[in-house]
Amino acid sequence: MLIFELSQPNRHANALQVQAPTAAALGLPKHTLRQTKTKLPAASELDVVRHYTRLSQKNFSIDTHFYPLGSCTMKYNPRAAHRLASLPDFLARHPMAPIVHSQGFLQSMYELQDILKAVTGMKGVSLTPMAGAQGEFAGVAMIRAYHLDRGDTQRTEIIVPDAAHGTNPATAVMCGFTVKEIPTNKNGDIDLDVLKAAVGPQTAGIMLTNPSTLGVFERKIQEVARIVHEAGGLLYYDGANLNAILGHVRPGDMGFDVLHMNLHKTFATTHGGGGPGAGPVAVSQRLVPYLPTPMVGYENNQYRWLTEKDCPKTIGRLSTFMGNAGILLRAHIYARMLGREGMRRVSEFATLNANYLMTKLKQAGFDLAYPTRRASHEFIVTMQKQNKELGISAMDIAKRLLDYGMHAPTTYFPLLVPECLLIEPTETESKATLDAFAAAMISILSEAETCPEKLHDAPLTRPVRRLDDVKAAKELDLVWKGE
Amino acid sequence: MSHVPTELKYTSSHEWARVESDGSITVGITDHAQALLGDLVFVQLPDVGDTFKAGQDTAVVESVKAASDVYAPISGEIIASNDALSQTPELINSAPYSDGWIFKIKPSNTAELAKLLDAETYIKQIG
Amino acid sequence: MPFIPHTKDDISAMLETIGANNIKDLFDEIPADLQVPPQQEIPEGLNELQITRLMQQRAKQDHHSGCFIGAGAYEHHIPAAVWDIASRGEFLTAYTPYQAEASQGTLQLLYEYQTMMASLMGMEVSNASLYDGASALAEAILMAIRSLPKSHPSKTILVAGSLHPHYRQTAEAIVTAQGIKLIEVPFDTKTGTITINSLEAHKSLQAAALVIQQPNFFGQIEEVDRLTDWAHANNLFVIAVVNPIAATLFKEPGSWGEKGADIACGEGQPLGIPLASGGPYFGFMCTRMSLVRQMPGRIIGRTVDVDNKPGFTLTLQAREQHIRRAKATSNICTNQGLAVTAATIFMSLLGENGLQNMALASYQNTQALIKIVSAIAHVHVLYEGNHFHEFVLHLPVKASAVIEEMAKQGIQAGYDLGQTFPALANALLICVTETKTEEDLQQYGKALQAALQTLGKRNGEKNHAAVTA
After folding, report:
1. Residue A98's domain is classified under what CATH number?
2. What angle do CA A301, A302, A304 make, to 5 degrees?
């Protein structure tokens, strides 16, 4: 049932209404006024509370289910971070509040800038990008600004490995570059000979994830950095997989010039059904002048905003105010709770969990995409064999897992591994949970052999079964028409 | 095994081209390509009168899981678009070489036709 | 160990399964010279009690006793149920609904949101949200450029000078790399709005679209019907930047002029999202069905499952970066799901009546404050014409000084227009919503008067000192 179907004319959530005279009584000119009705529901407070509580119960979430969604780092989101970022004085702080009414917030942001600088080995941080993709945009826009500032106008190309997130090539195009894709070799490393042939005076930079989206560490990263830098290009680090190396290995030491972090992944801020995230950027010395504004500075015992006036070469402003401030506050709280040592434990236990689960699944007969490699914080299982022999796809496994009460891993990404499941358990899951997941996978594999229709028909226990995506895209029903 | 009619010309990017009696070229995507894409849900057609160079993206075919550019096999001016595809894009799935044609082009340089693949070469490529 | 559940026994059993001696071994593919010791700049960890104390102290420093700043973020009453429900773990800790069968809650809610937002704007379709108002405008501009007929390309956009300056700056930062130029159409200094005359001067540019904000940055009501008809007569798309609460009172973008605006976008924050230092908010975007494939961001569709039971799913994904990569409509990946969850509950609780009353009460309170401050000597309301819940007050001194002075009394006086409009250094943009009482307004008047007196006296002393020196 839709909320609109609960609507009754003249019913209101009365306690929530303010009283006001009519527009005519207030003397507003008629030609400026709205003449049409909206489809907003008229419902009681209890109707609304019950409706959305029931909807919430149709979701899988970290709080209710194991959620090994590769590349998304679905770790536990500490309640303290959410609660403390929601203290009334933080919620009531206007983004343009005078700085005397802002010192608490600004100090927290200043500390977060410093922590992120330290943990990435970079020289400057701007917190404002509102998501990973916007962080990518900021990073590539800074690369563009850097070359143009030096009068180096011929650098029109960004190199992207074929395994990259789709946001990488999309971002490069948004920044006015053309994209050159390079292949990955069979062990999951970048092919250095291909890279050497690809770079040149047209190269503005390269966008890399390390560990890569294939779940393995790029072992020749220093060599990659040397090749790109010698060609005059810069290196962009996609921080999607930072959870794998947090506190142990720093993008700055690998030779990267700019990176974004996904705070909703590595720093445990809530995913909220698809956002908001936050995608701060960190840069090496040569890109500091171009960081997006505003940032937070400290002088004369006071925290204050740094704006275009302080940073004349900035790539500019990316949001109305300062990005997803409340998410930044949550990340700050999480970082302060972890502290120096806790930060390192994140990557240690994320790696332990991934390697343990990978070994368990390998022993159970699942094929690994990169069987000779260590897992980083995630790894890939390929169902190519089962697909050929039993007609079972990665999607079938994913849907059947829902019946076992576990969220599916990421499916069909990265695109270059056929029938793949990208599995990321994260550090906050216990051995018992991982064992239960392995047991479920083993059980599904045996179902695939004995009663494959259970997999083709899955899920059977969710509010709906598999949906008709073709109908959804062909007969677009995007708003309720009122029937 | 997908169907590859011997009388047509092909590109390595999976378009087919048929030379009509009036000299115009009808273009579509191959049976192999439609099978890879799956059920088509939308086709973005070129406007009649637009001109394209060989290899330029001219139309877009979209399924639930993929979207793919359709490139002009040869240079020229668009003289017709298959409007039926706006309502029934699935014609490309059911009849890729007949009712599922996408556009007709009036070639500006017929010499380019020689660069297209014959059926045998195309079959080798997708084999 | 915070948030890590492993016991010693777990760790040794797991290492044994893997065949490793210790956790360090698991990093053996990473070059040794890249592995670094702990970063000393990062402080020691805090437990929950310690961090609670710390954050409570920080929050206390940010306390104030009355906010009269608007400028793109507006204080409204948020019913208790909104964030109680939105903060349920099932909404809070779910992710992108790629597995539709495990995400029907989020998906149905987003479909309801799309319906509410499209109808609020009087448009045919809505996406599932973008990051915020300013970045939504940038996306709307890119969308307009993409939607032009191939035979008539243009890379010029006309932007009303009365648009929020941060929106303009953000749009500029995002679209200029693609060679797009934003041309500012100056506003009339008497009304603070744009006029057909100033548009006519830009006719020869053959721009792709005209961006109009309603109510505009100064809180003034633009003549949207005439501006829209002018744009359409000259083959420009109209991009409407709209306050969603005001849209229940003033004409919605779909009804502007003869044909209605082509794209409506804006900041969703007034719909149940706290001020919270500027985010997370959400940007909304609505358009005509004929342009839906050019719209960026996630879109939810209703369909049926294999048993013909209705259900909801992400649709039109082939536009998006994870499929279309370099040719995607945008690089955007996330939406602002949680903020949209709150907004949907907020709109359901208040309904059309509730939102309209909120708008009317805000307008009424603004009128009341205008009356109070108009009685103060040497100040006057700067622009003629109608406004919504913000107005510009001209002061005898710099607005920044008044803001600083009133902050000492805990009152946040407004936005200093001199920051972005050098000619308006003495102008203060003041916002009043339904949250203010008669007493709050009286107190504001007194505080303003006192601040002006203090500043006048100080200036007088300075002048006196200058004369005697």
Report:
1. 3.40.640.10
2. 150
Q: How far apart are CA A77 and CA A82, in angstroms?
A: 8
Q: Give me the number of domains chain A comprises.
A: 3
Which residues of B fall within a CB distance of 8 Å from A470? 39, 41, 64
Residue A409 Cα to chain centre, angstroms: 15
Return d(Cα C437, Cα B10) in angstroms, integer: 75
Residues 6+ apart with CB under 8 A from C335: A274, A275, C127, C128, C129, C130, C282, C297, C298
Q: Is the pLDDT of residue C457 over 90?
A: no
Cis ω before A414 (30° cut-off from 0): yes
Q: Decide if C80 touches A, using CB distance below 8 A.
A: no
CA distance A71 to A214: 10
Task: List helix spans (H) across A18-87.
Answer: 45-56, 79-85
Inter-chain CB proximity B64 and C324 less than 8 Å: no
Tell me, yes or no, whether A66 lies in a domain. no
Spatial distance between the Cα atoms of C279 and A134, rounded to a whole number of angstroms: 15
**Could you tell me the sign of the dihedral formed by the alpha carbons of A435, A440, A441, A442, in that order?**
positive
Average per-residue pLDDT for chain C: 95
End of a domain among A322, A338, A354? A338
List all residues 6 or more positions away from B45 whose beta carbon is below 8 Å from its beta carbon: B59, B81, B82, B83, B85, B86, B102, B103
Residue A405 region by backbone torsions, left for phi larger than 0, else alpha for psi between -120 and 50, else beta: left
Amino acid identity at C322 = H
Q: Which of A48-52, A332-336, B113-117 has the lowest mean pLDDT?
A: B113-117
Cβ pair B76, B107 in contact under 8 A = yes
Cβ–Cβ < 8 Å for C118, C126: yes
User: DSSP class of residue A95?
Assistant: T
Distance CA B74, CA B33 (A): 19
What is the total residue count of chain B? 127
A387 located within any domain? yes
What are the structural domains of chain C? 8-52 (no CATH), 80-346 (3.40.640.10), 352-468 (3.90.1150.10)
Average pLDDT over residues C360-384: 97
Task: Sketch out chain B's domains with CATH numbers.
Answer: 13-120 (2.40.50.100)
**Contact call for residues C370 and C444 (beta carbons, < 8 A):** no
The set of chains that have 3 or more CB pairs under 8 A with A is: B, C
Nearest to C92 by CA among A326, B52, B127: A326
Residues of B in contact with C153 (CB under 8 A): none
pLDDT tens profile C65-118: 999 999 999 999 999 999 999 999 999 999 999 999 999 999 999 999 999 999
> Domain containing A125: what range?
80-338
Both tokens assigned to A159: 């190199």
Task: List CB contacts (< 8 A) between B61 and chain A.
Answer: none
Are the C-beta atoms of A4 and A482 separated by less than 8 Å? yes
**Rounded Cα–Cα distance for residues A120 and A473 (Å):** 42
Tokens of A433: 């949970």
- Confidence bin at C283 (pLDDT 50/70/90): very high
A74 within domain boundaries: no
**Number of B–C residue contacts, CB under 8 Å:** 25
Q: ω before A276 within 30° of 0 (cis)? A: yes
pLDDT at residue number C465: 58
